[in-house]
């Protein structure tokens, strides 16, 4: 794969401060496909300085000017959609069709949505005898994960640019090539030098340096809750704003009267999508006791069909983690009805699509985020029991409710402690706010709510 041997800082590709490199490995065949610089604290400092120098001029541009640059960015990404899909497939292991339909297409649409929002958002409003201004918060440190590499970049960088902020991006070390393609698109779109900067590097080195840097006004991070706590502590010491999109253990609640076959089928597909590496995946399926056995049979049969349709997980470490959770599920008394901990292939970091029955709420696999193709089925007695189980984790990122009566599903969803709920298979909406309750995070991404994260408020009284 093509890779830049430098960092994108102040509008140009520049050598890193050291010769340290990160090997990019294809999870499907375990082969090294590229090497990129492992930037360090000095590189982060250079990038932040460039972002600070570019901030006054970029913040002073009109919303229409920022919208024009974001439109050009969307077009530059669209021109690279095939290369983006191929790159994500190579460094993440995602099947090419999924990379084309999701990893490439969705972030292009999100970039377009922020081009429109930049032009239409009310950055100034009258409130009584005051004029309220919504101004850019400043320099943004964006730290993104590997599971949806371009989508997570666009979901942070596009609203930051629309708000008038400048950005330093530290992408996940597993998927830096997609980030380099994004930097190429930014350059082609005519975004001024220093407004966007890219430092590839390791999380404990470059990521920590970015989070701690005094020149960064906001840290936007997507990843594990454990790392999110560390970033929150660092930011809190500096009284610095954070936006944290963290873990999830989302419940898929199937109420009596729902179309059981459809609810189970969509639920299994949701968990297996992206090899289970989705923070919002509905990894707990809650079914009424009277329909539970039928649901287990449906789920097991559906999972078996994904054996050769999903890609590997991202790394050997992730494979070992997921297999460890499967082994723990068996040890704690859950019943395997599909898949298991055995490696399905000798080469590549694959995990078998796995379904557990007879899972109880206190089991580890019902409480902790596995981040792999593993589904747990839990039975409930009545709606109050279902609600107790659904809300009974430290997370609250997403979820689903199925019912024969939509009003019944909505009433249940209103009582769920989670940031986003799909009703009877509701479609993804790139303008709807995404983010979590409890330990699933702080703040929101996408749409106007995502834009608001990068703005601060000033009022003028007359």
TrEMBL record:
The active site is at 245. SUPFAM superfamilies: ALDH-like. The keyword Ribonucleoprotein does not apply. Residues 13-459 form the Aldehyde dehydrogenase domain. Keywords: Oxidoreductase. GO terms for molecular function: oxidoreductase activity, acting on the aldehyde or oxo group of donors, NAD or NADP as acceptor. The keyword Lipoprotein does not apply. CDD domains: ALDH_CddD_SSP0762. InterPro entries: Ald_DH/histidinol_DH, Ald_DH_C, Ald_DH_CS_GLU, Ald_DH_N, Aldehyde_DH_dom. Belongs to the aldehyde dehydrogenase family. This is Aldehyde dehydrogenase. It comes from Streptomyces lucensis JCM 4490. The lineage of its organism: Bacteria, Bacillati, Actinomycetota, Actinomycetes, Kitasatosporales.
């Amino acid at each position: 794969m093509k890779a830049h041997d430098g960092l994108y800082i102040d509008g140009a590709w520049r050598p890193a401060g050291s010769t340290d490199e990160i090997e990019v490995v294809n999870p499907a065949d375990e082969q090294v496909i590229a090497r990129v610089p492992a930037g360090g604290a000095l590189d982060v400092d250079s990038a932040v300085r460039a972002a600070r120098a570019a901030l006054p001029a970029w913040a002073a541009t009109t919303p229409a000017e920022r919208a024009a640059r974001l439109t050009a960015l969307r077009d530059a990404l669209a021109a690279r959609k095939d290369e983006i899909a191929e790159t994500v497939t190579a460094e993440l292991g995602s099947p090419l069709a999924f990379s084309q339909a999701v990893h490439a297409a969705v972030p292009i649409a999100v970039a377009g949505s922020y081009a429109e929002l930049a032009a239409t958002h009310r950055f100034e409003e009258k409130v009584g005898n005051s004029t309220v201004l919504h101004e850019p918060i400043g320099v943004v440190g964006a730290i993104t994960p590997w599971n949806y590499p371009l989508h997570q970049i666009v979901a942070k960088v596009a609203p930051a640019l629309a708000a008038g902020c400048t950005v330093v991006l530290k992408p996940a070390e597993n998927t830096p090539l997609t980030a380099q393609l994004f930097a190429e698109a930014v350059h082609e779109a005519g975004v001024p030098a220093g407004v966007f900067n890219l430092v590839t590097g390791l999380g404990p080195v470059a990521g920590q340096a970015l989070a701690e840097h005094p020149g960064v006004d906001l840290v936007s991070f997507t990843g594990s809750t454990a790392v999110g706590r560390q970033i929150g502590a660092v930011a809190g010491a500096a009284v610095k704003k954070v936006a944290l999109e963290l873990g999830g253990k989302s419940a898929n609640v199937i109420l009596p009267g729902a179309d059981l076959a459809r609810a189970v089928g969509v639920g299994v597909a949701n968990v297996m999508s992206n090899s289970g590496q989705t923070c919002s995946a509905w990894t707990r399926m809650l079914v009424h006791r009277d329909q539970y056995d039928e649901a287990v049979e449906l789920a097991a049969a559906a999972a078996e069909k994904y054996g050769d349709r999903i890609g590997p997980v991202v790394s050997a470490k992730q494979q070992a983690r997921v297999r460890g959770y499967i082994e723990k599920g068996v040890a704690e008394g859950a019943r395997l009805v599909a898949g298991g901990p055995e490696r399905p292939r000798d080469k590549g970091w694959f995990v078998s699509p796995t379904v557990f029955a007879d899972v109880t709420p206190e089991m580890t696999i019902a409480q902790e985020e596995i981040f792999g193709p593993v589904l747990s089925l839990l039975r409930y007695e009545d709606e109050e029991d279902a609600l107790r189980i659904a809300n009974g984790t430290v997370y609250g990122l997403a979820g689903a409710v199925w019912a024969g009566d939509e009003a019944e599903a909505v009433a249940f969803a209103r009582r769920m402690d989670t940031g986003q709920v799909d009703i009877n298979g509701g479609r993804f909406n790139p303008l709807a706010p995404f983010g979590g309750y409890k330990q699933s995070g702080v703040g929101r991404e996408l749409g106007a709510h995502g834009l608001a994260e990068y703005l601060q408020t000033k009022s003028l009284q007359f």
